[in-house]
Amino acid sequence: MNVDHINAVCRATKGILSSHFGLEVEPKTPKAGVHAIPSNDVSVVLGVNGEVNGQIVCAVDEQTAKNIVGVMMGGMTILDLDDMSWSAIQEFGNWIAGSTATELSKVNCLIDVTPPIVNDGRSSFRSSEQFITVPLASTLGQIDVHISLHKKAS
Amino acid sequence: MNVDHINAVCRATKGILSSHFGLEVEPKTPKAGVHAIPSNDVSVVLGVNGEVNGQIVCAVDEQTAKNIVGVMMGGMTILDLDDMSWSAIQEFGNWIAGSTATELSKVNCLIDVTPPIVNDGRSSFRSSEQFITVPLASTLGQIDVHISLHKKAS
Least buried of A128, B89, B97, B98, by fewest C-beta within 10 Å? Predict the structure, then answer.
């Protein structure tokens, strides 16, 4: 995986958290992994096609998801994730998708990102392709950004 | 959603099950749903970009996953899903991805499909976009094909 692409995805997520949520975000040490990544309680899955192909998965625990939705709804306290909350989390994914496409285009990598799909419940995502995980610490909680973007075998 | 696209995705999956597995497949009554679709025990998620965008999720129970892997490994009995099994399930997703792109191109819909990612564990996929679910019954077990393909809002 190209480190410029990983940095672009991180900039995209950090940019959204800073511009839309007013958050200071501290990236922690990235990890490389294969085989299985945890979905945590809630994860947003973005599919990427273009000059690189793969997935970006943003995984958070339930409280962090509630905190994110709360800020998106103008500072409400969210007790349960209802349909409106899931829709907000999907919209959060849309913001990251749009920002990711922009940031990758700045490093000359043209991609399309699918509409986000949200995974609810603890499970694992498995792939034989390598994932790089960048944990982002914020006051709303930790957001694990798992990135698997590879050039098609030609 | 365009019924031609749904039929194309179903033809793709049925085609793989027939040509690669020698299976007779019987499509059961499709259902339309929103909000949440079950991941069953094992699901393969394909992201679609192009003239339509969204996801195709193929969900099976654990025994069906083992049966599929067993046939792919030349008729072995699979007791546990190990790394090689997960890799086989991902390859099963790759076959469906390739076939889906071909079948959709035949109805003048050009798309790219992401490499598959496999979800392991019971969870739900949530989206505010509509999903059409086509359950395919086969002797290996039931494969639920969930299709959410929409034109981008312009």
Answer: B98
